[in-house]
Each structure stands twice: as C-alpha cells, then as structure tokens.
Give the backbone structure.
Amino acid sequence: MIEQSDLILTASVEQRSAVAVLHPVARHRAFTLMEAAVILRQLSLKNENNEAGLLASDRPLSELTAQMYALRGSLPLVIPDSRAILRSIRSLDVQMNEWDIGDGHTNGGRAHRRTLRQVHDASLDIAAALAQLEVQ
C-alpha cells in the first residue's frame, strides 16, 4: 500500500520515520499531518499570489508531494494558538516534536480535546489546499 501511495500522512515524526525505514523510496511522500497542513497552506498562499504551477488540477498528486518535499524543513510551524498548544503540552511534561499530533487517549480529557482540535484544523487546511486542485 505504501508503494502505491502518492501522499502518506502520519501523526508523528516517529511514524513518518518508520515509513521511511520500511520503504525508503516513500520518504519524500510521507509527512506528518501538521507538516502537510503547514506546507500546503504555504503552497496555497503562493498559488493565490499567482506563482505559476504550484497547485494545478492538471498535475498529478505525486508532483504536489514533490513540491511539498522540497519545502520540508524550510517552514516554521505556524498554527492558530500554537504557542498556547505548545505551552499546554509542555505543562503535561510530554516530550513531543512540534510536528506531532499528541496522543489524546492517555493524558485525560483536555489532551483529548486538544488532539481533536489539532487533527480537525490540520485536516481542514489539507482539504482546502487539495480542493484547489479540483477547481482550477
């Protein structure tokens, strides 16, 4: 399944790394949910500024993931209320990478709601960017 996938989304950097270890050729197609949301948001902004060829319906998803991979590591994590989220994560004394979606099942109701909010917000950003592929 990984071999045929154009885009692979994981909850954590650790899971993304596991994909790369299992299938090294898939590493350029694997992103955390948060990472994909930030990168696609940036590509959407560039697209709105008429920078040619960034998000176009006549291009395959594999080309979009290549563009995403080229931007990996060059963008800071910027999400609404990211500082508040990171502060609350640190207050739980949980070691997480900033690109990870936390495990909301093991740290109580507040952590669960925070995880759901992160998944919801990232999913909306990804869906909005991918929807641009359909309308152009």
Notes: The longest strand covers residues 8-10. The helical segments are 13-22, 33-48, 61-71, 82-91, 108-135. Residues 88-95 have pLDDT under 50 and may be disordered.
